[in-house]
Amino acid sequence: MNNEQLILTIMSLPRIGRKSVHKLLQIPEFSQISSLKEILIIMNQFFSKEVFTLEDIQLAREKAEEILLKCVKYEIEVLSFLNPLFPARLKLIPDPPILLYAKGNLKCLNEGLPIAVIGTREPTEYGVKMGKSISSLLASSGITIVSGLATGCDAVAHLGCLEGKGTTVAILAHGLDTIYPKENRSLANQILEENGCWLSEYPPGVRGMRNFFVERDRLQSGLSIGVIVVETDIKGGTMYTVGFCLDENKPLGCLNHPDHLLNEPKTRGNQKLIFEGKGIPITNFDSLEEFVNLCNRRKNHNQKDKTILKDSVKPQENEPNQISLWEDF
């Protein structure tokens, strides 16, 4: 019985969640479990009473096997917290996952400099163009773009990354046997075709629920070394990711909108975060580059800056120092 089978079996027991399994991992005997009977002994010792029967363990094992067969069918990899391919950054967040389901290029979950680019499902035209431009610039310099495949800013971030010939990770709030929203199915497939990855905490067959999207948001921040908000209102799903980012003391960048867009509802969250000093304003290429350098310094414990963004994507000497299309609105 490997770690994935063992942990999935335990997670299939009633009233057992990831926090309980993380505590179980601290028990020295846990790594030596090789039979269902040994699972039963450990579980009842853990609760200091006979909570489960051997029949409960057998049923849980059957459920686990059903999930694993679905994973084989849909070419989904199962990664336990103990698997060397499990994303190292996600092990460090306050509430780390215990099992992950991944499809595509698993290497990108641990390599490179991942930055989350997120925002509202209903961006302005300016937000669409700037989100795509920022993601494309970052991707063309080898930065992995992390987002959630939602309509609006998330989809724009993935598209911009692909246009920049980069790698992008879509973190989903449901099983990887389906794609939500369905209109992003083509984009999701393109992510895999271009060496990217889908990632989820949920096994195939599980459909998204409201709280799953908040759970997903902590993974977006956790997998990344920094977060960029393209556009958001003061309240909304984006603010959950913002909160996780700030709690983890990671740099938060916010697109700084021109004056004529400051009355737009979907820019008010950006303005508030910048005004409160929580969000770093991203106004032009230099500010984007400084944000990336800050992310790299935090990642490398304040080592000396090195240029991350390639010279080829920087404005030329006679060009205005702006991200593409900055002056068009």
UniProtKB/TrEMBL annotation:
One of the GO BP terms on file: DNA-mediated transformation
Transmembrane annotation, as ranges: none
SUPFAM superfamilies in alphabetical order: MCP/YpsA-like
Domain Smf/DprA SLOG: 78-289
InterPro entries reported for this sequence: DprA, DrpA_SLOG
Similarity section: Belongs to the DprA/Smf family.
The protein's name: DNA-processing protein DprA
Organism encoding this protein: Brevibacillus fortis
Lineage: Bacteria, Bacillati, Bacillota, Bacilli, Bacillales
